[in-house]
Amino acid sequence: MLIPPNQIKISLITAPEFNLEYLWWLTILFFVLAVIYFIGVFVIRNNINTNNHRTKDKKIEFSPMINEFLFFEDSNSKEEKMNYLNLKVTIRELIKNDFDRNVLTEVLLDLRKDLSGESQSVLIKLYKDLGLHHDAYKKIGSRKWQVVSSGIVELTTMEVDESYGLIIKFINHRQSTIRKQAEIAVVNLREEGIKYFLDNTKFKIAEWQQLKLLDVLRHKPNYTPPQFALWLTSTNTHVVLFSLRLIKYYSQNGAEQSIITLLKHKNRDIQAEAIECIKDFHFVSALTTLKLVYSKASHDIKIAILDAIGELGTIADVPFLENLQLTERHFNIKGKVIGTLNKIDPERIMPTKNISRSDFYKTEPNIDSHYVEDEVISESIIEEPLENIVVVSDEEIIIETVDVTDNGNGIVAAEEELKVAIIEEDCIENLEEQSDNIIDSTTINTEVVTNIDEIDLSFLPHVHHETEWVEKNKIEEEKLELKQHIDEELSIDFLPLVTAEIPIKAPVSTFTQEEFEPLFELDDDYSEHKKVIETAILNDVIPTKEIESIDWSSIIANNNLNTTIEVGDDLNPFDSLEENAVFVANFMPQEELDTMVLLENIAELGDCRELTILHEIANNNTSDLVIERANELITKFSYETPRPSELFSGENALAESVFTDIYNLADQETKLILLNEIKSIGDEKEIHLLESIIKTASEKLVEQATEALEYIKSQLEITEQPETETEERSLFEVDFELELNESIKRRIASNDNGSTLFDQLCSLSNSLYKKKNG
Amino acid sequence: MDSELFGVVLEYINFVFFVFTMILFTLFSLMAYFSTRNSIHYRNKNSFTDISKIMASPLAPTITIIAPAYNEGLTIVENIRSLLSLQYVNYDVMVVNDGSKDDTLQKLIDSYDLEKIDVEMDPDWKSKTVRGIYKSKNRAFEKLTVVDKMNGGKSDALNAGVSLSTSKYVGCIDVDCLLQPDALLHVVKSFFQRSKKRVIAVGGVIRVANSCIIQGGKLEEIRLPTNWLARFQLLEYTRSFILGRMAWGRIDSLLIISGAFGFFEREIALAVGGYDTDTVGEDMEIVFKMRRYMHDRKEPYTIEYIPDPLCWTEVPEDLKILVNQRDRWARGNLETLFKHKDMLFNSKYGRLGLLSYPYWFFYEWLSPLLEFFGFFTILLFAYLGILNWEFFFMITLAIFLFSIMISFYAILWDVYSYNQYRKTKDILILMGLAILEPFIFHPIVVYAAVRGNYKKLFKIKSGWGSQVRKGFAKAS
Amino acid sequence: MSKTVLLADDDQLLASLLNFRLKKGGYVVHHSANGKEVKEYLKNSMPDIIVSDIMMPYCSGIELIDYVRNELKSNTPIIIISSAGNEQNVLTAFELGANDFITKPVSPTELLVRIAREVEK
């Protein structure tokens, strides 16, 4: 476009030459291409349109035939049957052509998505009858990945079970689409597919794929998922992540330790998912690890951790949060810290500020129910778990800190004697009802114990509070007891800290915070306690089951006050505790209680290494409840990934009665035979089985069992008091000086961990702590 | 002597122009090739997946759609209603009223039964003051949040939304866009389908909705616009999205996501500080920032592009508004490129620095300017009688045919992939437009781009300071 | 006297199938593939029951309910066919006066039972 080069004389510098001819050729090329495209557009349009038309026509042709097939009923007349057969022949003729067959397949696949119930199965049957799945098999053999994938999709949709073996080899295919479709097919076709997939997949599982796989599982009728905890140890990070999600979705709360360990995983998604699980399943024992992980976590993980602490945390976590409140710079996190603090301890609400954003919706609507629920619990704590708390708190204090004891324990020691006396009486009074209610008191005990367990060593002052709180409850309790037995004046002299009788008289069901407060009108020194108790009220750590009503009568009887609380709210299916449990102030035999405490400790902190102890407990104990709980824990821990278990020794692990399983599965006849067998060859391992039979089984069996039991006992020359339930009750004496009865002594003697149950407990929890803190 | 030197200079100009054109041909041919590959792949991959099933999955991530609104009182209620009825479980809609001067907020409050709620804001946050946050009292609209803030421009409004959202992903859309009901499903799929790379953003096609039949917030029938300007734009959009973005998507070098339909991972959008409030090209700028951020952290990442028609918008039918729009685009382009000028030919950024950025620099920004000045040079040379007519004619013809060819190719792919315009007449019209475009529509676009650049550069030089913020008033 | 069913569904295959089943069940069926047709039909005659897909071109099932109840002031029973995950729409449908709904995938037998129940009322 510029000056022709030849017009200008160039002396020194010359511009590079270029040949215009090339440009000319290019122009022609472009022109030709443009023309081709122009024609191409119309050719393509035409193709698409004719194809669509043909398909549509075919579909219209096929549709009535398919209808006939789908709704053909055997009961129809002969003529219709002939029709049906003819139709089948026609259709077979029709689909000899490839195009037609493809259209028919398409139609069937379409309908498969829209139909359910019987029609769907008829449709699938028709698909196979017409041999269309052979086409799909051919597709799988194709060299084009998209054809292979569509073949797999087809077989999956039409539930061609036989293709499972063929498709399974594609789950580690290099081509991602084939692989993904194969994964879905494998999981879809057979119930065991998911196991195979998780075991064998080597590739990463994209989020979308996880979503689809879960979707397949969700829509499987009558599906029983495997224990996904098995795959938490997978070397494929994505399998771990997916397993965690499945665990959460199917609420499989049996893998506590593994999940807590995953908090430390390098992958953020896994961390986040583990936190979700912990929150969902209420793994209170994870709090220490949560706090540990916190400092190095990313923003969103931090917020998730705070959220979890808000759900699970206790007053013991307050210093940690307060510390964060000072150190955290990021606005959102800081807001979350404050929100969490408020959730755990509402007293700390900043007077000038509103509740932070993320908690705005959550706290308000729930507050009322929290009040009621937690009140129930704190009330019952006050009433019930006396000696247990004493024991446990004492030992915790001893184990954990020295200075804690100074303040709290002094009181405890002083009060203990008195209380013990009271309880002893009470125990005897209430022994009749005990078996029904043990569960309840145990739960509460557990909670108290748990709270104490959670305390991190760095938060000693709060351990102190915690203990004091327990002490406080104890004191309250003693007060109440005292009132029952002694005069009121005495109590006032004795315990100036506690207000006299308000708690009993207040109508519990209408408690609000204000009404509740007078209960703890304490000296200034004890404002701390007040706060603590209120926290307990607002915290939803405690209740773990549906509580329908609480019967206070046994305690309040003297005051002629009957108050019933009705709470219809459940928080968490925490354990296999019975629903609608009724609280009655009641006490377990000391021995049993101790063991339960131990079990709960194990439940919170233990892992499969505790199996030995559990088996031992299960075998040596007399109480159903204890055995049940122990067995439960055994099952729970057995699911967990086995760890190097130096504590394991073969004989102990096998201590469970060999008859238990068989017995549970057997029918009446077999049971009788079994009992006979037990009588002849059984030893002490069988005792608890027999006892449980006596309690639960039918008359005939009981008879037989009693006989067997008696026999075995005589064989073993058991010298202690006979252990059948009724006798035990009448002869049972609670010994609060921890003079162990002979059976316990013997058990302990066989155990080289300590000489008394008390020591044993102490050392046990000690070792548990060590384990937990690494 | 002088004329000799002048001649050599002219000859060099000739040569540079020729090379520039050749590179342009090569680039566009490559783009056509890559986009074809990508289209076929996309088609194969998605031909048999049924995404609607996923709607109710418990693993579905949260998405917040952020719709900034400025003086949208006329249409806001209807537009929001259609946003609230998308097919997805886990999403919410956040309308940010950017200090509208009309009754936008009041209309929203009345129609959706809104009430003010208390939310604590980050005191260090740099956006304009938020006056209030509203939620609906009616549970049917619980997905809706309305944020009322002082006027601060589109970027500022979007930033407010991004920062107030708690979702994993945020979608920034124009409030007057029409989203297909399954749009979010596609978006989630795009975010989720990669296992090796982290998808930090997802963009999509913008389709021209002029003259289409829309009923109750749903697109019922697709029609070719009746307005000529809109038709030209339709052709331009088709070419740019079907060929351009598809190709850049293929080689993972997308540098722009339309502000009308763009989804981001919130964490990263926040990490880079959200939208830049100092530019009118904020939608491009944030992608630059997010890409650089990921590059600097050496994390494998990608930006996905969905070719399916999910977002429909009305393009300006008025010449003046169109020129203003393009003027703004040119300025945004310049600002963004200038801000990230260190990326040019910087091998640290891989393909971005060596390919994407130079493309934007030379062919999106520089080329209109060259064309503009080239045109006047030709006139001048012709007047002076020093024009090489043969060369001029040849190269013009080549470029002209090339542009027609590329347009035809885009139409071909559009027909092949979606075949949305049913009438043969419509296709013929589009092809006719492709032939006319270089003479009618293209000069307009070039003029607007030059005007934008002139304004921007001139104002910087004369130190007039920042330009008057126009908000983002839409023509309506 | 057999009852009339208006079947509004844009999915040809499914519609034809349901059509077939309903006819076999003893109903007179009128089928429309889009909202416009449905409205046109309803202007002239009112069936004994309406079965409508929730997603249809030109007039969604929701609009159809609104049209029948509020404009035609008819109490003809309406059964909605919805796809999974569309719970919000189903709620709206009920608010507007739908009598029953059935989710895709559809069991034709179930649909027949539901229709029979509504018609008996």
From TrEMBL, chain A:
InterPro entries: ARM-like, ARM-type_fold. Keywords: Membrane, Transmembrane, Transmembrane helix. SUPFAM superfamilies: ARM repeat. It comes from the Bacteria. The chain crosses the membrane at residues 22-44. This is HEAT repeat protein. It comes from Maribacter spongiicola.
TrEMBL record, chain B:
Gene3D superfamilies: Spore Coat Polysaccharide Biosynthesis Protein SpsA, Chain A. The chain crosses the membrane at residues 12-34, 365-384, 391-412, 427-450. GO terms for molecular function: glycosyltransferase activity. The keyword NAD does not apply. Keywords: Glycosyltransferase, Membrane, Transferase, Transmembrane, Transmembrane helix. Pfam families: Glyco_tranf_2_3 (PF13641). InterPro entries: Nucleotide-diphossugar_trans. Belongs to the glycosyltransferase 2 family. This is Cellulose synthase/poly-beta-1,6-N-acetylglucosamine synthase-like glycosyltransferase. It comes from Maribacter spongiicola. The lineage of its organism: Bacteria, Pseudomonadati, Bacteroidota, Flavobacteriia, Flavobacteriales.
TrEMBL record, chain C:
GO terms for molecular function: phosphorelay response regulator activity; transcription cis-regulatory region binding. InterPro entries: CheY-like_superfamily (IPR011006), Sig_transdc_resp-reg_receiver (IPR001789), WalR-like (IPR039420). This is Response regulator receiver domain-containing protein. Gene3D superfamilies: 3.40.50.2300. The modification 4-aspartylphosphate is found at residue 53. It comes from Maribacter spongiicola. Residues 4-119 form the Response regulatory domain. The keyword Phosphoprotein applies. One of its GO terms (biological process) is regulation of DNA-templated transcription. GO terms for cellular component: cytosol; protein-DNA complex. PROSITE patterns: RESPONSE_REGULATORY. PANTHER family: REGULATOR OF RPOS, TWO-COMPONENT RESPONSE REGULATOR ORR33. Pfam families: Response_reg (PF00072). Keywords: DNA-binding, Phosphoprotein, Transcription, Transcription regulation, Two-component regulatory system. SUPFAM superfamilies: CheY-like. The keyword DNA-binding applies. It comes from the Bacteria.
